[in-house]
Amino acid sequence: MSLEHVLLFSNPWLGGIRGSSTILRNITSLSSAIAYSDRITENITTLSTNYAASDGIIQGLLYTPDIDPDDPCSARASQYIPNNATKQENLPPTSYNLIALAPWIDPDCTYSLLTSTRADQLRAFIFYLPGNDTSQPPGADDAVWKLDNSSTGNSWIAKYRYPIYVVPSATGSRMMHELSLYSGNLTQVPYGANITELYHPDSADYVRIWTELRVSFDNTPLPIWAYVLIICGVVLLILGSTSLMMHWIQNRRRASLRRRVKSGEVDLEALGVKRLTVPPEHILNFPLFTYNYDPPTSPMSPTSPYPEDVKAAYTATSSHGAFPRGSILPTDYQPKCHICLDDFESKVTIIRELTCGHIFHPECIDEFLGEISSLCPICKKSMLPRGYAPKITNGMVRRERATRRLRPRIVAPATSEEPRQRVDSWGSTVKRHLRSAPSSPTLSKHPVIELPERAKDPETARQRMRELADPIDDRSDDGNPPWKRAVAKVFPWP
């Protein structure tokens, strides 16, 4: 920590004119055999680093503070401080930086020593406990350094604008002894004759001890618990950052999927991602009509491509004279409800038409869209209103992304043939085949009509509804163990 040098100063009073002292020689660096030199490298306690030099180097002339003779501490300090030790009055008149050296006798004497340095240009204070102990002084938090009754311990240290160090007792006593030796002129100091013979100074010149403190702190290994805390902190920081990043990514993906669902770009149920239902208020917006179908009279070809159930319906109806034999059924012919399989009765049955053009009993399609599926039972077109999106979850995002990656893109081959004409749907011909019911968006405002009793059992109809809806494995994470659900909440893996 410290490096002691002996410096040769010029006599400022030489020739009767008071001037500034100048350093003539650094005797220690030129010839350490005829000067005091000491180096302290261990067993040092730091009480304060207040206003310590930023580069870790503190320099100044070593001295012991003057105590007022009337102070009771003056008599007690004389037992440890030699009378000829360098005092303020023995220092050069030039304003050199100073480093104080004193024994730690008791709290009262320490206060007196600290108080006496207020007017000095002090850069550091070195204390030592009286005795010849070579071990390290007590730590900075020890009660021996407590000067007041404050509950905060060593609060007095903050009052002083210089660092404070404590050296071992034997080291401090040796430094004080050398300080007492190098406080006179060349005729009084050790090796004065040798210094005079080598450097031929003026007889009135004198030497003093210059102290240089190179403050550095040993890189003491941290205890194991400190390393454990550091590692835990780093791990928590990494996990927290990862969790936040994953939540941010998933939040953006949910927002993107919600936006595409609202715009109609993605049909979650058609992709097999999630079973959805249509809001009740939107179901009631599908129009109601009275079924009215006038059969065509054109002959029916023996090789008609229509399904057997349509032909059967045609044959059964024609036997009553409703459809002449040999007539051709139109492509949009819908004689019965596709859910309950009950026939529509012309000019009697109330039907609800979906946007895709297919018609059903209101009670059948309302229950199907509101409780079973949002897709038309026949063409599987979504009946969800534009701008509507259900609550989007992370599981729905994962399934939609996986489905999008797995499903190949189907590119229609280029052909020079003219595209086929689109077959008219029920919606495009309904005005030609139906007699519109009184204008009303809901069934409640429709005139009360006695509907025929359904031919099918309600439970059978519901079973058929479930069969008409495409199977979708939209199981959530609820089936996972609790620990997996907890991990998924913290780390929503994409």
| Topology order in helix (H) and strand (E) letters | EEHEEEHEHEEHHEHHEHEEHHHEHH
Please outline the major beta sheet: 9 strands, mixed
Structural class: alpha+beta
Rg, alpha carbons: 52 Å
- State the helix count: 13
> What would you call the quaternary organization?
single chain
Number of strands: 13
Unreliably modeled segments: 298-329, 410-455
Globular, elongated, flat, extended or rod-shaped: what is the shape?
A: rod-shaped
For the record, the count of structural domains works out to: 2
- Separation of the first and last Cα atoms: 58 Å
Helix fraction by DSSP (H/I, runs of at least 4): 25-40%
- Overall pLDDT metric: 75
Q: Bin the strand percentage.
A: 5-15%
Outline the structure in words.
By secondary structure, the chain is of the alpha+beta class. The chain folds into two domains: 2-214, no CATH class; 242-293 and 333-404 and 425-490, Herpes Virus-1, CATH 3.30.40.10. It is 30% helix and 13% strand. It is built from 13 helices and 13 strands. The chain has helices at 27-30, 73-77, 107-116, 169-181, 192-199, 224-263, 280-283, 308-318, 362-372, 394-406, 426-433, 458-468, 482-490, and strands spanning 2-9, 23-26, 39-40, 45-48, 57-63, 98-103, 122-128, 164-167, 206-214, 288-290, 350-353, 359-360, 435-436. Strands 1, 2, 3, 4, 5, 6, 7, 8 and 9 form a nine-stranded mixed β-sheet that branches. The chain has a four-stranded antiparallel β-sheet with strand order 12-11-10-13. The radius of gyration is 52 Å and the shape is rod-shaped. The two termini are 58 Å apart. InterPro entries: E3_ubiquitin-ligase_domain, Znf_RING, Znf_RING/FYVE/PHD. This is RING-type domain-containing protein. GO terms for molecular function: ubiquitin protein ligase activity; zinc ion binding. Residues 413-486 are annotated as: Disordered. It comes from Neoarthrinium moseri.
